[in-house]
Amino acid sequence: MNTPTHKHHTWAEPYKIKMVELLRMTTREERLAAIREAGYNTFLTRSRDVYIDLLTDSGTSAMSDRQWAGMMLGDEAYSGSENFYHLESVVQEYYGYKHLVPTHQGRGAENLMSQILIKEGDYVPGNMYFTTTRLHQELAGGTFVDVIVDEAHDPQNAFPFKGNVDLEKLAALVDGVGTDRVPYVSLEGNVNMAGGQPFSMANLRELRLYCDKHDIPIMLDATRTIENAWFIREREDGYAGQPVRDILREICDMTDGCTMSAKKDALVNIGGFFACNDDEVFQKAQNLVVVYEGLHTYGGLAGRDMEAMAQGIREAVTEDHMAARIGQVRYLGRKLEAAGIPLVEPIGSHAIFIDARRFLPHIDQEEYPAQALAAELFIESGIRTMERGNVSAGRDPLTGKNRLPKLELVRLTIPRRVYTQAHMDVVAESVIGVYKRRDKIRGLKMVYEPEYLRFFQARFEPVS
Ligand code: F0G
Q: Measuring from each residue's beta carbon to the nearest atom of ligand 1, which residues come in under 6 Å?
């Protein structure tokens, strides 16, 4: 077991810095020109114009010296790479699933799983949608049904397990459409779109009982499940002081398989996997992966990427890593709370989510308040954040109307092991600076809208 972190500073970084990447500072005029050029979409800005990059925690972690050393051990054979077998053994040990199919990243795994398990006309219940996950469900002929607890849709509700599944909502769906129209329950750890909110082990236990009774598999989105395990350790009766790796295994052992974007928890810049226990599903995934990703022993990754992932998983499940990770996010969150900035409560694991509706109450949701706020934060100080609201939610495929989600958020996503406490102070000062002049911020209109996952490439102009 790991020793606890220093008692006087509970989240001090359990590493020191060996290499640095220099940052470029810009003027306000340069940033204004850059965001106009990018159509007021932070996804379309150039990294060189960014000072502190909080766009995502995906693929943006700093790898350790051991991970980099592992990269030198890449076995770049087309088939049977040694690194695949190493990764397979690590996934079996820490996540516990029998079979592994590597993919280039999470959505590659989502594509395989959706195509294999979903048939036309199916319904896929989940604890809130994720953009790529839902799209793959829809492309496979399914309809996503939100069965997360109501608390998750209320940013001001401080319920500690806002990632929980509402079993009544699930039962209503299953009773309505029949079990043969529900291929699996899609369960996400530390629900991204809800603000990085965990489910509890008690809820998963109940879900397992229900699913056993109705013979419905549970497929985990394991992307941030180690962070979910940390919250269970902090908040749930009986788990205080339990090793994170044991809690992770307990979660995985109650599910039937997973998709994983290793770019988050697993501390790598690229990679993902599909894992499962069912032999037949595995065989199908092994077959399908060669169509979309690459041979089943590399799935679109280089051997060295799989080696870095195997080592990253080992580092991610340590208590000192998680204490620093969550501690840093919380440090920023508390500073913003103290200044009265409206946030999603409780503070989640991977990001601070600003409630743009309360930050900019004068902007109608059809004028994309969260998108406007993300652009404004960039102009203020070169901090790059991400909209998670009306733009991300997209249009209802049936009505063609904006889905107008209850959560209209700006995500300040914290990369792992990358920024310092002083950087967090700069971020807090910038958000507070924008808050002071919030009355002057105007909404946006969308002038270009791509068909799929529009938030990545949509373009905007300020409303006149
Ligand atoms: N599932 C969850 C919960 C995610 O957060 C992501 C990615 C994916 C699946 C897809 O994985 O990007 O490796 O293909 N989330 C990133 C983010 C993009 O910024 O939240 P991917």
A: 56, 58, 105-107, 130, 132-133, 188, 192, 221, 223, 261, 263, 272
Cα–ligand 1 centroid distance for 137 (angstroms): 15
Number of CB atoms found within 10 A of residue 395's CB? 13
Q: What is the pLDDT of residues 413-435, one digit of tens each?
A: 999 999 999 999 999 999 999 99
**What distance in angstroms lies between residue 58's CA and the mean position of ligand 1's atoms?**
7
Tokens matching residue 123:
């319904």
Question: Tokens at residue 195, please?
Answer: 């603000």
**CA–CA gap between residue 73 and residue 83 (Å, rounded):** 8
**In the CATH scheme, what architecture does the domain 65-316 have?**
3-Layer(aba) Sandwich (3.40)
Q: pTM of this prediction?
A: 0.95
Superfamily the domain 28-57+319-462 falls into: Aspartate Aminotransferase, domain 1 (3.90.1150.10)
Atom of ligand 1 nearest to the CA of 261: 13
> Pairing between strand 383-384 and 52-53?
parallel
Measured distance CA(344)–CA(184) in Å, rounded: 29
Pairwise CA distance, residues 353 & 389, whole Å? 11
Domain range list for the chain: 28-57+319-462, 65-316
Three-state secondary structure of 269-290: CCCEEEEECCHHHHHHHHHHHH
> Which residues are known catalytic residues?
78, 130-131, 221, 264, 388, 455
